[in-house]
Design brief:
Layout: E1 6-12, E2 30-38, E3 51-57, E4 79-86, E5 89-105, E6 114-120, H1 122-125, E7 136-140, H2 141-152, E8 161-162, E9 177-178, E10 186-188, E11 194-198, H3 208-219, E12 224-227, E13 233-236, H4 240-244, E14 251-253, E15 263-267, E16 274-279, E17 282-285, E18 292-296, E19 301-303, E20 308-314, E21 322-330, E22 335-336, E23 350-357, E24 361-368, E25 374-376, E26 381-389, E27 393-398, H5 400-406, E28 410-414, H6 421-435, E29 440-448, H7 453-461, E30 467-471, E31 478-491, E32 496-504
Parallel strand pairs: 8-9, 10-13, 14-30, 16-28
Antiparallel strand pairs: 1-4, 2-3, 2-31, 3-6, 4-5, 5-6, 7-11, 12-13, 15-29, 16-27, 17-26, 18-26, 19-25, 20-24, 21-26, 22-25, 23-24, 29-32, 30-31, 31-32
């Protein structure tokens, strides 16, 4: 007997984030839909962007923005939300914005007469958002993630509080409430990795997404960053699976629960016996009391009388190495009446201030208080504590017995934020230890939720971070896995297909201080020190 859930699909047409205003409930109009969250591959640390595609019945033209009957507010940037209700439980599954170009009505009055709507999550929005960040010194990975969010000023779609400058948050006290801070739309584990420096060696114009990728990679094997069903940014440190292993699993699936052909299983495909970890050691020059020149301007800058001009000074000491800086302040500068440096000296009538300090550059504002144009001469500088990145260093570790048995199976990790050689050594050794022998792994599992009440319950309740037990007779595969990605395909009320991307739980069973119980034997017996 087929079981059915109820699907609640809404579009926030007026930016209120309430989803209950006129015409916003389109639950009677959808024909089929797909949504995705989390990672696409088991061992990815940074999720792909959450996304959904909804096909709407457009017979009356309401979902054609340029049609006379088109809904007001139905446009890119409007929030889309999907919820389900089953057996008395209502759950949210997706929230995100309609993408640019994400509204595609089918033409013709005798054809499909439907509109495809594509929506995207926060991780899509930040891929082209450039960020400038002051050097983060001695900060945990989660602290750097939070600093990047604050600098980017682009908030996840789960934001329901009122925030200055946030579209749709213009009715404080009416339809919105004051946000209590980033905790409203983040859930960040305390990072297990402390970065000596971050933000000092990113390329100018690095995207938020690119910076987050580097930070999560530096956290190490097991880390995970994604946007959840509620639209919150979730960070799980490399140690999060260890704590969960003390708890009971969340679900059990056997062969009869799995869709025919719905098990992505392989044996021995992930052998790794030769690991190279690329890191970038730094050196520090200068101090808080003795700062050095970080960068200069290379051409004269004109500032009109009573006006201000800004310029971005990239840190560069002429060595060709990557230069970062912290505790930045104005250095030496000269202002003259003529562009070539001749004429009256106007330096005393021109002030300078740093308006934005970044790890690799700073924005300086010059203000001319004189009655004539002033030219800031080449060589005007900023100074601070210099951090030099002398290039990539590589740490390698290999297992010769595994190489002899299975051939050399290499993996290379490039961790631009890492400068700790001991951690790099531990990381390389840990990966080889875990993967030097062949083993069977399930990368994904698919099931038809409508097949039974139990499967529908699991399809709707289980999500990223849950741990499940799987067994399948033909392959002999059996083990515990963490869900790290989910995809739902719904075609009408009677066909709901769910696929979970899985990460083996056994790879998290590294001994850490504080572990107790019979399932966590002593160091050097069946486990090794967690990194």
């Amino acid at each position: 007997m087929s079981v059915q859930a109820t699907y609640d699909v809404r579009i926030d047409l007026n930016g209120s984030r309430v989803f209950s205003d006129a015409n916003e409930n389109v639950s009677d109009d959808w024909k089929r839909m797909t949504w995705r969250l989390g990672v696409g591959k088991p061992f990815d640390a940074l999720a792909r962007a959450a996304s959904c595609e909804i096909v709407l019945n457009n017979a009356d033209g309401r979902f054609s923005p340029e049609h006379g009957s088109g809904l007001a507010g139905f446009r890119p940037g409007a929030l889309v939300r999907i919820r389900t209700t089953y057996d008395g439980a209502t759950r949210q599954h997706f929230i995100g914005w309609i993408a640019p170009g994400g509204i595609r009505p089918a033409p013709g009055t005798r054809g499909k007469r439907e509109t495809v709507v594509q929506a995207q999550g926060w991780l899509s929005r930040i891929q082209d958002v450039e960020v400038t960040l002051e050097v983060q010194e001695g900060k945990r990975t989660d602290e750097v993630i939070l600093a990047l969010m604050q600098a980017a000023n682009v908030y996840p779609p789960g934001t329901m509080g009122w925030l200055l400058g946030l579209p749709g948050s213009t009715s404080l006290g009416e339809t919105t409430r004051l946000s209590t801070g980033f905790s409203d739309f983040t859930d960040l584990d305390a990072g297990a990795t402390i970065l000596n420096y971050a933000g000092d060696n990113w390329e100018e114009g690095v995207s938020v997404y690119g910076a987050l990728r580097d930070v999560v990679a530096a956290e190490g094997e097991g880390a995970l960053l994604y946007v959840d069903r509620e639209g919150k940014l979730i960070f799980r440190s490399r140690h999060w699976p260890h704590g969960d292993m003390y708890n009971a699993g969340d679900a059990t699936l056997t062969q009869s629960d799995i869709k025919e052909g719905g098990l992505d299983y392989g044996y021995g495909g992930r052998i790794v016996n030769d690991v190279t970890v690329g890191l970038r050691p730094r050196t520090v020059t200068g101090s808080e009391s003795s700062k050095v020149t970080l960068g200069t301007i290379d051409r004269a800058l004109r500032v009109d009388p009573g006006e201000s001009e800004t310029t971005r000074i990239r840190y560069d000491d002429g060595s060709g190495e990557r230069i970062g800086g912290k505790s930045v302040e104005i250095g030496d500068y000269t202002a003259t009446a003529n562009q070539d440096g001749s004429g009256a000296d106007l330096t005393s009538q021109v002030s300078a201030a740093i308006t934005e300090e970044g790890g690799t550059s700073a924005t300086v504002e010059f203000t001319n208080g004189s009655s004539r144009p002033a030219f800031i001469q080449p060589g005007a500088s900023v100074k601070g504590v210099k951090i030099t990145d002398f290039g990539k260093q590589e740490i390698t570790h290999a297992d010769e017995d595994s190489i002899l048995a299975y051939g050399r199976q290499k993996e290379c990790l490039q961790l631009s934020l890492l400068d700790d050689t001991r951690f790099a050594e531990s990381l390389a050794e840990g990966l080889v230890y875990l993967r030097k022998e062949p083993m069977g792994e399930i990368a994904a599992v698919t099931m038809v939720a409508n097949k039974s009440d139990s499967l529908m319950q699991q399809a709707l309740a289980r999500t990223i971070g849950d741990r499940i037990q799987l067994s399948e007779g033909q392959t002999g595969a059996s083990g515990e896995y963490f869900i790290v990605g989910e995809q739902h395909q719904v075609n009408g009320q009677r066909h709901h297909l769910v696929t979970w991307t899985l990460r083996p739980a056994f790879e998290t069973l590294l001994w850490v201080f504080g572990g107790v119980g019979d399932d966590y034997p002593g160091l050097g017996e069946e486990t090794r020190l967690g990194f």
